[in-house]
Amino acid sequence: MTAARYVGQRVRRSEDPALLAGRGRFVDDVTEPRQAEVAFVRSPIASGRILRIDTSAAAALPGVLAAFTAADLAPYCPGWRGLLNWPGMVAGEQTALATGVVRHVGEPVVLVVAGSRAEAEDAAELVVVDYEELPAVLDPVAALDPDSPLVHEDLGTNLCFTSPFGSGDVDDAFARADTVVEVAVQTGRHTAVALEMRGVLASYDRDEHTLTVRVSTQAPQMLQTLYARLLGLPENAVRVVTEHVGGAFGMKAFVYPDEVAVVTASLLVGRPLKWTQDRYESLQSDTQARDERVTAALAVDAGGRVLGLRSEVVSDAGAYSMYPRGCVTEGVQVATIMPGPYRVPAYASSLRVVFTNKTPLAVYRAVGHPPAILVMELLMDEAARALGLTADEIRRRNLLAPADLPYTSPTGNVYDSGSHLESLERALALLGDDVGDRRRDAERRGRLLGVGFSSFVELSAPGAMFYGAKGAPITAHDQVEVTVQPDGSVTVLLGTPGQGQGLHTTAAQVVADALGVRLDDVRVVSGDTRVVPHGSGVWASRSAVVSVGAAHAAATEVRRRLLVLAAHLFEADPDDVELVDGVVGVRGVPASRTGVAEVAAVAYWGTHRLPADVEVGLGAVGSYSGPPYTFNNGTHVAVVEVERATGLVRVVDYAVVEDCGVLVNPDIVDGQIRGGVAQGLGGALLEHVVLDPIGQPQTSTLLDYLLPTAVDVPDIRIEHIETPAPTTTLGTKGVGEAGTAGAPAAIHCAVNDALAREGARVWRQPIRPEDVLAALTAER
Amino acid sequence: MKTAPFDYVRADSVADALAALGSADDARVLAGGQSLLPVMALRLATPELLVDISRCPELRTYRREDGVLTVGAAVPVRTLELDPAVGGAHPLLVRTLRLVAHPEIRARGTLCGSLAHADPAAELPALLLATDGEVEVAGPDGPRRVAAADLFTGPFGTALGEGELVVSARLPLPAPAARWAVDEVSRRPGDFALAGVVCGLELDGAGRCSSARVVLFGVAGTPVRAAGAEQLLLGERVTGAVLDAAAAAAFDGVEVVGDEVHASADYRRRAGRALVRRALAAVAEDRS
């Protein structure tokens, strides 16, 4: 390999011009000839039996092509269960349209097809559905009561999954402890609120017998497989296309009933069908996340060193385990990530994942990490207060030092490298030493200033065991095909789609370096299963490890073949041939230098000049699976001001020290961190799916579901530490979710630091001004 | 999220608009559309006819005359906000406008539209009430004026009759001796207020309060005068103790409405009192 020329550089993103100019191609931007549009009738109640559906008035409306119920689609598309082989896990059946029972507000019941969306919505209003309303299961703890109504009658229980986690003698640890602190924490139910809402454009070609589905998804090949299975088609007849995707965050990594219904209906109607979700539907039917109730206790010795940790986690899964990732991952990660970057000799956790009559809970950026890190960091601060230590000192005494690595956490996670302690010290330096002055200044303005730390590790780029071993069709590998064209330009086909995170740019940097060509000569293509090799999709911060590894493997192989070819032309030994910046030559022989284009041309048009043992063409597919996972690490520090009079919290300063190993493109990493912190800030302070006592969503528009805006997010100062991963091709670790993982804890700890000066705390997210004011008043 | 079918008429004059409004059972006026169109998209409003007044020349003007700023019904508030003459004549208006949503929304939304929409959490109805403004109304029975105190009848409810149209808002310019403040608490800048206050004081030569006006918004079904606070201020020197007492009494007799998403009634009352205290102090200090 040649010296890194592009890897590590702040190369400008090739993705940006089209997106910034509004020329992205999202699902709704594409229109097929003869296209018709879909609207859904969705359940208006959280729980009930469907007694009767009358679509006759809707079907009679001019412009309406069809109105389908579950009975209409069932012969063509069976139901499915989001069941993974976690021991003892149960999951109810889900169908494209609700079959006999509705289990959450927003569940699709009837699909209406018309010439336009407006006509389809007019018709949907005329559909009559009679329900027998049933008592809704809304509290996940009460749902475990034997007398509770059941979300899925056939399961006989609302308990989806339960398991212990941890190792070490926890009872002994707590018996030996000088100090034990306890917290009971609840995090708010979130949803991803992608800028581009979900959408499908499905076309069935009756002559070719092929189905083409344009869909806003993170995992095109996964959907290709699952559409084929559900509809009984061979996989080579199913093409999934995803061009630009306007945000997904885990929410678009599933088989959604409404999307399957549109795809199935396209076969029956015989015309391309488009459905573009609206925001009202998005806030009721996109997967939700973070709804975790955690009680936890930390045992420390007199010096503040952790002896043991206990936690009980109740995860509110909502109505279904979404296929294929299921609803268990978040709860498992809350339980298993909690010990974080600290030396925790003993840990015992119990997890219960519970079905309720809510929109399904699933994975969402930094799956499980925000609640896990939040609980651990709140415990650290409580222990520090109990012992009279500062927040940084107690962390310093417990964070893993270089000598501790590799370290196996009490839940079996192995941290092979990192800068756990150093990231804290660097964050402290970023914070500066004027906190006292800032506190006094804030006090003069009627505000309490608080500083909060969040030291964390984040599981990223998980490998084959993560889902594959659980029986889900989710691979850990990626493939990338690199081809040098006859003119020397390079085409890179990514198995995993680039969706705005900058993967096209990152992959081009890696390929240009590995191959020895100029960045401008590399063109990256992704997102069409008929064109690209296999890949697992965009999830769990895997691209910078797995896609990059595959791109590197492919480019390295092409480079090898190019050098063999050039050596033949130069009549030299391949080991003496060099390739730098697109120029090939024999080392030490300047006169031999020639462009890649001249060599490549021979590989295609001059094959008569080649002996039989030199391969024709200059393309190769590289595959990469990566290690079981990589753990990035970091420390965030947040400074907040809490207004005494109103309880309003403003984040006024924020700094991040992040270590994700080797940086391919620092600008892209910084962007991921900034966006992630903004998302975490939303979780800490604003975002919350609110249901009324009968399960009716109260936050079905963005007037009520509050997202952070540019004015709510402070400037974020970022520093990097680069501790290379010993196990990945380029030493990279995943980082796409790290900002979201760390931010809720840092902000919450900062708020509690401010409130603690008045003897108050808050224990729920989002931290509403109302809760802050109540806490300040109650404990005075 | 498509609107139910509706008819659309673009009016070129007030007369046109009134005729159109009278032609349908369920006609609604479209000005900036910033409140109406979202509720139509959700099919929470399904008018038969929209009468678009946004391009009526006679409604697109505003003028200052005899101590009153008269603003036509088709004037976007951003136009007022950016006009230095408006800022000079009525600084409270501009400060209030900056609390209304975001620049993009203010570029289309109108002052009269906000008044006619009568959202109880909106700033501009409170401003109109606090400053004794009124609206000029055209209708089938001829023109009339409705004072702010009579205009707001409940959440999203006004005293406008069938077929009537707000053609302008009349905002009396603040007296030179008066000092005003507007303040609100909202989860994010630009959101509707969880509690808000517009308040104004005039002090006489001896430093006693000769006129007091405290109007709360975002806390009840309409903007509401805090009569308890006003009475405690009148005739008094505005000492800290008097301001404390006034703020404490601000919600006397006010029926505070809360909700489970944004803030409870209790929070609105408590934060509201603190806001009143802070706003009155700002006004009093401005004077000194």
From TrEMBL, chain A:
The entry's keywords: Molybdenum, Oxidoreductase
An MF annotation (GO) of this entry: iron ion binding
UniProt domain Aldehyde oxidase/xanthine dehydrogenase a/b hammerhead: residue ranges: 21-135
Keyword Lipid biosynthesis: no
Protein name stated in the entry: Carbon-monoxide dehydrogenase large subunit
Organism per entry: Geodermatophilus africanus
Lineage: Bacteria, Bacillati, Actinomycetota, Actinomycetes, Geodermatophilales
Automatic annotation (TrEMBL), chain B:
InterPro entries in the record: CO_DH_flav_C, CO_DH_flav_C_dom_sf, Diverse_Substr_Oxidored, FAD-bd_PCMH, FAD-bd_PCMH-like_sf, FAD-bd_PCMH_sub1, FAD-bd_PCMH_sub2, Mopterin_DH_FAD-bd
Residue runs in coiled coils: none
Protein's name in the database: Carbon-monoxide dehydrogenase medium subunit
One function term, GO molecular function aspect: FAD binding
UniProt organism field: Geodermatophilus africanus
Keywords: FAD, Flavoprotein, Oxidoreductase
Superkingdom to which the source organism belongs: Bacteria
Occurrences of domain FAD-binding PCMH-type (ranges): 1-176
